[in-house]
Structures are given as C-alpha cells and as structure tokens.
Amino acid sequence: MNLLAWNCCGSGGHATIPNLARYLHATRAKIAFISETRANVRCSEQRIRRLPLKNSEIVPAVGKWGGLWLLWDDEVSVTILERSHFFLFVVVREHPLAQPCTLGAVYGDPHDRVTEYIWERVEFYANEYGSPLCIFGDLNSVVGLHEKFGGSAKDKRKHKRFRSMINRTQLVDLGYHGCAYTWSNHRPCATLIQQRLDRAMASTTWVTLYPEAKVYHLPKANSDHVPILLCTKPDRERGLRTFKAENWWLHAEGFDEVCKRALVTQNLDHSWDWEGMQHRLKNEVKGWLKTTTQPSHELALIEAQLLELQYAIPDDSWHDKFKELQSKYNHCLLLVEAYWAQRSRIRWAVEGDNNTAFFHATVASRRRRNSIHAILGEGDDIITDRTMVRRAFVEHYKNIFISAHEASTGSPAFSFAFVSCLPELNPSERELLGIQPTEQEITAALFAIHPDRASGLDGMNGRLVQRQWEFFRPYVLNYVTSFFATSQLDPKMARANVVLVPKKEGPKHVSDYRPISVCNLVYKIISKILSTRMKPIMSKLVTANQCAFVPGRIISDNILLLRELMHTFSSSSFNRQAFCFKCDLSKAFDRMEWHFVVRVLQLYGFPPIFVSWINVCISSASFAILINGSADGFITPTRGLRQGCALSPYLFILCMDVLNRMLDYKVHSDLIRGLTISRNAPPITTILYDDDLLVCGLAEQQEVQQVKDTVEDFCAMSGQKIGIEKSRIWFSKRTGEDMKQYCMQMFEATQGENDHTYLGVPIMPTRISHYDYLIDKVTAKLHVWKAKLLSPAAKITLIKAVVEPMVLYSMGAGPITDSVLQRINLKVRAFFWNTGEKNRMRLVNWDKITVPKAEGGLGLRGITLLNKAMAMKMLWRLVSKECEQSLWVRVLNAKYLSRTCIWLATVPTRCTKLWVAILQAREALRANV
C-alpha cells in the first residue's frame, strides 16, 4: 500500500489540484494526507471531486490558515479516531483480514504554540492505544541541525522537544530516498534555508509488520514542500537462491551427521577436492532441510502443543510432557535467535540472551538502509528503473576497474630515484615471508577469521568450518598448500560478489556507495596468511607519517598532530607562510594499479615467491555487483585492490608510503624543506591514515610547485585521482592573500575552516556545538527502540562495546568539554533505564552502577572520568620508549619540551587543550604514586 503526504501550501492554485492528481496517479497511492489546504468545506469538496480518491475526511481551514484533507481509496478501510486542526488519527485496514494499524496524519504547528499537545496525542497512540502506529506528514520539526541547511540555530529547544517525544514514544524514523531536505524558502544562496520537515515514523510493532517499508522524497511542484511517498510493501527484488551456511544448522539435531556423510563417508577416493566437497555438502544439506522443519515453524508448533497441554487435565505423564516441550521450546528459541542474529550483522551481542526481537528489528532496519531503489544520473536525472539502476552501477565500476595505462599506451616508465630512502628486509625476514605455510599457520589463519563474516559465492562462513574443523581440515589444508606450492589460484575461488555499502545517510549518486568484496573462504584463509606475515615488518617498512594498520601506531596520533599543526598555524609567533593540503583520493583502493603494487613490493625487497603469491591474489579477481540481493554484471578488473580482503590494507599503505619516500627524497635533496612547526621539530611533508592524505609544506612558489609535481607523479604511477570537490587547504596566519590564491589555484582546492572534520572529528573544536556530531552518533546508537527490545545485560554490552569506544575515540583526539560528556551521560542513563514506561523510578544510583563488578557494580565506566584516563594514556605514550619514534611524540617534544622534560614542564602561554590535560594528568600521577 502506498501513502502520500504533501503540504500543498494552498489548494486553490491553478496547478495544485492537477499536480496532486498527477502524483496520485503516478504513485497509485491508496491514502493521501494533504495539509495547509487553506480551504473551507465547500471548496474542499469541489476540489476533491477532481481527484482519483473519492473518500475523504476534511478539516476546514481557519480563515486562510491550515486545513487538512485525508483521502483514501475504496479498497482501504479507514475509521476516524480523533481529529483536530493539526492531526487526524485513524485506524487503517488494507483488507478485512489484515491487522488494523493506527495512522497519524500530522501537521506540526509552524508557530510552536500547541506543539506539546500534538506530541502528547502522538505519545498516547504510541504507548497506550496498543495498535501498531505510523505517523507521517509535515511535522514542522527537525531532529537536529544536521537536518537543516542555512539559517540560525535558534530553534534548538524545539528540536530538543521533538527528540524528547521520539524518546518517549520509541518511534523509528523510516529514513528516505531522494533529496535530503523537504522544505525550502527558495531564496538566493546567501539567505537560502532548507530543512527536512516532512517524514514518516513508526513503532517497532509497525516496522515488524512492514519491514521493507520505504519513504521517497518526490520532485517538488508548486509548493515549498516536496511530497513524500510511504510504500509499505515495495516490490522487492529477489535474486536466485544460493547456498549459504546458516548458523542455526550447528545447533540443529542431525547436522553433524550431514557433515560427516558429505565430507568423510562419500569421499571414496580421498581426493580432498574442495569443489567436489562443496557439491556433496550442498546436496546433503538440501536433502536434510527437506526433512527438517524451519525453526520459526517448529516454534509455532511447539507453542500450540504447549497451549493444548495447558488446557488438558493433568495426569501422571503431564509433568514429563510439559518438561519435554519446554526443553524443545527453549532449544527452538535458540535456533530462531541464531537465524536472526546472523542476518543482523551485530558483532557485540551474543546468542542465548533473548534478543530475537532486537535482531529482527535490526535486520529490517539494515534492509531498508541498504536497499537501492533510485539514484541520480550524470545530469542529476532521477533513475528509478531497476534495469537502468543496475546498468549505472555496472558501467561505473567497469570504468573504475580498467587500468588507465592499459587503456592508453601501456605501462609507462617512471623514475624511482627515491629507492635510496627505502629500508631493506634482512635475510631472516625474507625467509619467513617465502616459506611454505605449516598446518598450524593455516589453522591459526582460519580461526582468526571472524566466524560471522558474510560468506562468499561458496556459501561457507567461518563459523561452519571452525565448528566442523574435524571434517573440513584435510580439504582446507590440501587447497591452501597447493596454492602456495604452485602459485596458482582457481579463478572460481577468486570470484566474489561486491556489496554496495552507503558511505553516508541518504546516498544519491553511484559514487556514494563503497564496494566491499565478499570473498570465498579459502581465499580469505590465503589472504589472512599473507597479511599476517606482512604485519610484523610494517613498522620497519612504513614511515612514521602513516598510522594505519601498523602495530604500535594509533589513529589518534594523526588527529593530535594535525591539531598541533593547526594551533601553530593560528599563532602570530609562527612567522612562516605554510600550507596544509587535505588531498581527497577518489576511489583510492579501486584505482590502485597492479603493476605498481608489484613494483613496490620488489623495491622493498620482498622475495620473488612472495611477490608472485601477491600478484596471483590481486590479479585473479573477478566479481559481480550485488544490488538488492541480486548479482548483476560480470567484471574482470585490470586494477584495484579488493576492499574486504585482509591483504588489501597492507598493500595499499605500502604503495602510499611511496609518496612519503618521494617527498622525503626531495627534502634530502634540498628541493623542498617541508614544514617544521618549531625549532628542532622533524619536517612534516605528509600525514597519512590509510587513504586520508594531508600534504604539508612552506607556502613558497618553488616548494608548492615541487609538491604538486610529486603528488601528480605519484598519481600517474599508482593510478590515483584527486577529487577536487572534497579537497581543502589551510594556511598559517602569516600567509599572504596572494600566496593563498596561488596555492589554491595550484592544488585546485578551496580554503578549509577549523570546524572541518578529519578522520571523523573536528580539526579545531572551539565551541560546544562542534561536538554535536558525537551526541548525534551516540543518540543513533542508543536508539529508543533498542531500549525496548534489549535485555538489561544486552544494554550493558551495547554501551561497553559501542558507545564507550565511540566516546573514547573522540577523547583520543583531545579532552572533551564536561557539559558535552554530561549530555552523553544522560543519554546513556536514559537508555539503560528505559523500558517504555513513563517516569519510571530509577532503582539504583548511577554511581553504584559505574563501579567495577568486583565492588558490586555492573562494570560501566563513568564517561566523565574517561577524559582524565585518556590524558594519562597520552602522558604514558609521551614518556614511553615504545612510542618515541611516533611523529606526534617527536613534534610535541620539540614544541613543548625542547629546554625541559615532561616532569618539570609548566603550562606555556599558548598551547593546546591536550597539553594542559597532559600536565594535569602528570600532577594527578604525582599525587597518587
């Protein structure tokens, strides 16, 4: 069923009714809610006659203000519950046998006079009426400033009341497809304001009934608002059913025998052939499933038997029957929970904690978020046809994965003069890289793979093979040792499906999705062995500028270093003209040239046999694009590193390290000087985390030209491409305007602001509002519907495994203001105690909950104390010999400790908040040691 909501801004316009009729015909909406009609009953009836929906409930306008229409088709049953000038609550049945649902057609008060009353009525129908609820329409409220563009932030109190209503009602935002904003004031750019005022929200019971519901923002017509279309049951694309291992099989009776028959009994020639084993296992499992009842169906049968037993007159066998059925029921609950837990992709929760409803709701949310029904084409035309959407993705990735050198004149020759700057592997390291893997190494690689990672085309996940290792062992050992002995990989085993993961909320373009390869299990094992061998030597090979995937280096080092750099840039005492260029590498993994990867490995001195293994792994790739569950297109790439492969990050950072070496070579050759932010500080040329690249230097024409040439040479060698739209550049305070313009022209970048983000955190947070991103993230993770569906133990696990690391990550970049931490703490407490009941008394003081378990608490850490703990950690990193080569530590030592030591240092006149926090941690350490 399709439902349309539109604030038409007056139904009397000459184009309003024709446009509305066109919307209704095009969307085949069965129910329509039209707000701000500005029409009395007589005019409303005349205009409704021109529309395809003949049944109506009219709320007349008050003069030229307001007015509501609710229109519906004869096929739908609608019963009016309550009406006012701001809402209509009705009971809707799609057909006589359908479960009745409550629909709230809401028009929020634009003048904010009766908003509280509207939210009270919504809360009544959400919490007390007892029917699945969906509200939609122009709510005239936004959740936060991220749903608003332009204008002032003076409505924060209104936003807070709206969020409070959502928390009390536990409604789930159904999201949207299309443009991000639904209302605009249609003014020039300087005074333009846009907001997402129109939306659809629903209770968890409604979401369970309609798990695939979608909301579309339609093209705007003659109104300030866009119409929104709610599709409760959109046509779902279903791909061919393929074999995929299910976790619930491992708990089911008889599955061990199935594995034994397929892997041992029927293997008459003891060939240990992986492909033959897969064929036998699939046939055996299919036969077993035909004789096995699905867990959900079995659960319903047992519930019926229990109900029948409860009505029966007890006899001597009644108690034994009840115990037997109860045992079967609990076992079946475990199977159902395992089924939904596997699909939810939740990593922090554990099976057996009665979180089935939570897993089910999470699956519905994931499907809604990941489904692709429309995209914007090259000319910003909306593409909704399924075939055209698929074609757009396939063509995009075909172009991305074609080698630029192959498409032109072949692989060009480049200068590798920087080789003199490269470290060398010693003979023992080379030997360890090139030896044949042992059984222990293969087994360790298998068990290092997460058991619930998505399975590839072979259908095998880690949990199945790990649990049944006794049967799978000879097949895995045979295939993996064969690869390392022959350096040949079966093309079938190298094939993968590519799933498209949205990079941001509300993706519109093909480029807004990240392609993640879902590889076969044996390939995962091979790549895990190779990556495990590379990991110990990465700290030796990769310069200190790169902090990703190198043991002993952490992501916060880069953020702290950048903040120190920006602090120096803002200082009047820093008398140099300098720049920091944030270089956005577009589709960095997908564009990496294979010949460049191989050449880099050779330059670093990797043994030839190891290089050949790597070459086979990356060049044997082929894949299909998975869109809405269906695979489309078959792409054989000639470049690119698979995202989702354990090997790719290590290969990528080695290749990116070449840029560091090229710039270091120019520093040693006195062609550039790099950026030194204080006396005796090491020169900074790049700051890298994976593909997040910052290039630094002096803002002088010769240096800027040299840096630009180096970056362009690296891009030409590696296949990288700079994305101009997202690239930014910052300058020191003493940099002149002419030099700023020159640098921006050379790098084709716009000047960045201090509130710009780097690695997910603000570069220089100076206001409390700069931490709104963190509060929004915590709010999203602690969504109210989760509080209702999770058990108390699961809530504790969620807070520990998800929320605390999120806050700690932001703290790792510097101390967070206490007022922000208090707001986060309030959200955590509200989430933990929330049971859907209003104003429930807290049973235990929160201070007692946040003490260790050994002292009677629940082990939650007090968020406000984490600031001091993180500052203490930074102090330890500063004095630890293990971290003395860290670029951040070396810069801080040069900036603040050039004439003293950490134990004697005082707070200087100008310093970052982090340095103040470190010195305070030092005093706390002195007082307690």
TrEMBL record:
<dbReference type="Pfam" id="PF00078">
    <property type="entry name" value="RVT_1"/>
</dbReference>
<dbReference type="InterPro" id="IPR043502">
    <property type="entry name" value="DNA/RNA_pol_sf"/>
</dbReference>
<feature type="domain" description="Reverse transcriptase">
    <location>
        <begin position="482"/>
        <end position="763"/>
    </location>
</feature>
<protein>
    <recommendedName>
        <fullName>Reverse transcriptase domain-containing protein</fullName>
    </recommendedName>
</protein>
<dbReference type="InterPro" id="IPR000477">
    <property type="entry name" value="RT_dom"/>
</dbReference>
<dbReference type="InterPro" id="IPR036691">
    <property type="entry name" value="Endo/exonu/phosph_ase_sf"/>
</dbReference>
